Each structure stands twice: as C-alpha cells, then as structure tokens.
Amino acid sequence: MSNRILPLELIDKAIGSPIWILMRGRTELTGILRGFDDYVNLVLDDAVEYSPDPRDKSVVVRRELRAEILLNGNQVAVMVPGGTGPEDSMAARST
Amino acid sequence: MEEPLDLIRLSIDERVYVKCRNDRELRGRLHAYDQHLNMVLGDVEEIITSIEEDDETGEEIITKKTRNVGMLFVRGDIVVLVSPPLRTS
Amino acid sequence: MSSAATDATQAPEKAGSSSASEQNKRSPSDFLKAVLGRPVNVRLSSGTDYRGVLACLDGYMNIAMEQTEEYVDGQLTSKYGDCFIRGNNVLYIASQRR
C-alpha cells in the first residue's frame, strides 16, 4: 500500500514547476504552481490563459496575465503536472 | 467590513442592483437575504436582455425588456453580482 | 482530506524539509493576505472581468470590491462603487502587481 500515492501528493510534487489546468467549460490555464489548499484552490504565477474568443468560439485566445492568480478550485476539472499548455499537446494539434 | 456579506447587510432596505445568470438584471429594495444570497426584493424592475441575429443581415439585435414586480424571491445560486446604491461619502 | 494538501498550506513553518520548491510555496491564504486592499482583476467563468480594489472575501470566494469596473469581452460596460460577487461564479483572482 505504501507504494501508492494520493492524487494530491502528485500535485504537491508539482509545486515550483509548470502545471496545465483544464477548467470546467473551455478555459485552460498554465503557470508555475506556487501552492494549493484542501479545496484545490491553486496559486499560479506567470499564468497564461487560453479561452474561446467571444466572437468566434472555435478560436482560442492566448492571454498572458503577467500576474499571480488564485484559481477557484470549484472550477478545476483536470490538472497536468509539468504540462505547458494546449500548444504543446498532441490532442490540441490533431483538432 | 469584515466579510463580503457585510456589504449586503449594509444594503438592507436600500435599492440594490442584482446581476443574475442568463443576462437577467433586477433593481429593487432589499427586504431580506440569507447566507446563500437568497433575497427578497420589493418594487422590482426586471430587465431581460436578449441578443438575436437578424437572419438576412446577420446583425445582432439587442432587445431589453423590462417589467415590474411588487415583490419577489431571488434564489441565491443564480446571483452573479450585487451592488448597493452609490453612497455619497 | 489528504495530508499532501494540508502540507501545502502549512509548509512555510515546516522545519527540516527545505527544498527550493518548498521555500517558494505560496498557499491560497498567503496570496489573499498579499492582495487584500489592492487592485485585482476578478475573472468570472462567463468571461466577464471585474477590476477594482479587493475589500474582503470569504471561504466561498464571495468577494466585496470597491471602485469596480466591469469588462465584457474586454469592453468597459459598467462601474460600481461597491459590489458583491458571488463566489461560485469566480474563475480566478489575479493580482495587478506587474
């Protein structure tokens, strides 16, 4: 049993490293993970947001927030430790 | 002000603006609220904005409909924003 | 919940384990202490942004803001002296330090 790790231990190991977050809905974010709490509220530094263009939802807009952010854990769907965003993913390229 | 709900507490018996989901807006006197932000508003003006696209020109047509309701209950989970009237400080 | 999450919030006081990443840890509550009373950008999941001074917030991420400007699709649409934002709509709170 001791070789098993808890899901959030994986995220704890990602502190100080890049992380890629997929939110409920279509928004995605990347940044350096600074910390998190029991609710998986996340502090990200140098965050970059990828969200659908309000005028054409099929276009994804990349926005550098140039700030530290607190991400609401309620809206988090998927976390990819070490992930650097949709531009780096095979899945994103194939669409 | 120590917690956000204090802002609502200080607005009791005042006219407030409430922005809800689905482009619904309300203006009315705040009679009561609870921790979920369920609210009872009186003398309410409801504004519903809808955007439709003209089939021929493709232009967006924004229509605002208003109606008045004497008293209503707002379920807290549809609330996005509440703003008290501007205070002259 | 898991001990990992608890560690993340308590790490700054932890003696002995001081890897570079642990020293740089910044929990959500550390972040909030740093931005209270400062200009922030609050983004809702609808895409609407609210820029103003963060007056206070609670555990639901309900937010009270002052001198708030509302931006829909990047366009200034409204201003509020004080406003309350219900936490379930909040996607993130960004500091405006840079």
Automatic annotation (TrEMBL), chain A:
One of the GO BP terms on file: mRNA processing
GO cellular component, one term: Lsm1-7-Pat1 complex
GO MF term list: RNA binding
CDD domains per the UniProt record, alphabetical: LSm5
Keyword set, alphabetical order: mRNA processing, mRNA splicing, Nucleus, Ribonucleoprotein, RNA-binding, rRNA processing, Spliceosome, tRNA processing
InterPro entries: LSm5 (IPR033871), LSM_dom_sf (IPR010920), Sm (IPR047575), Sm_dom_euk/arc (IPR001163)
Tagged with keyword Ribonucleoprotein: yes
Domain Sm: 6-85
Localization in the cell: Nucleus
The UniProt record lists the keyword Nucleus: yes
Family per similarity comment: Belongs to the snRNP Sm proteins family.
Assembly and interaction partners: LSm subunits form a heteromer with a doughnut shape.
Role played: Plays a role in U6 snRNP assembly and function. Binds to the 3' end of U6 snRNA.
Descriptive protein name: U6 snRNA-associated Sm-like protein LSm5
Name of the encoding gene: LSM5
UniProtKB/TrEMBL annotation, chain B:
Matches recorded under SUPFAM superfamilies: Sm-like ribonucleoproteins (SSF50182)
Domain of life: Eukaryota
Ribonucleoprotein recorded as keyword: yes
CDD domains, alphabetized: LSm3
Annotated Gene Ontology cellular component terms: Lsm2-8 complex; spliceosomal complex
Keywords from the UniProt entry: mRNA processing, mRNA splicing, Nucleus, Ribonucleoprotein, RNA-binding, Spliceosome
Single GO biological process annotation from the record: mRNA splicing, via spliceosome
Cross-referenced InterPro entries: Lsm3 (IPR034105), LSM_dom_sf (IPR010920), Sm (IPR047575), Sm-like_LSM3 (IPR040002), Sm_dom_euk/arc (IPR001163)
Compartment(s) of residence: Nucleus
Pfam families given in the database record: LSM
Domain Sm: 3-88
PROSITE patterns: SM (PS52002)
Gene Ontology molecular function: RNA binding
Family: Belongs to the snRNP Sm proteins family.
Protein name, UniProt field: Sm domain-containing protein
Organism, as annotated: Cyclostephanos tholiformis
From TrEMBL, chain C:
Keywords per UniProt: Cytoplasm, mRNA processing, mRNA splicing, Nucleus, Ribonucleoprotein, RNA-binding, rRNA processing, Spliceosome, tRNA processing
Superkingdom field: Eukaryota
Region (Disordered) residue spans: 1-32
Keyword Cytoplasm attributed: yes
Annotated GO CC locations: cytoplasm; Lsm2-8 complex; spliceosomal complex
Domain Sm: 27-98
GO biological process: mRNA splicing, via spliceosome; rRNA processing; tRNA processing
Annotated Pfam families: LSM
Compartments (UniProt record): Cytoplasm; Nucleus
Matching PROSITE patterns: SM (PS52002)
GO MF terms, alphabetically ordered: RNA binding
Family assignment from sequence similarity: Belongs to the snRNP Sm proteins family. SmF/LSm6 subfamily.
Designated name of the protein: Sm domain-containing protein
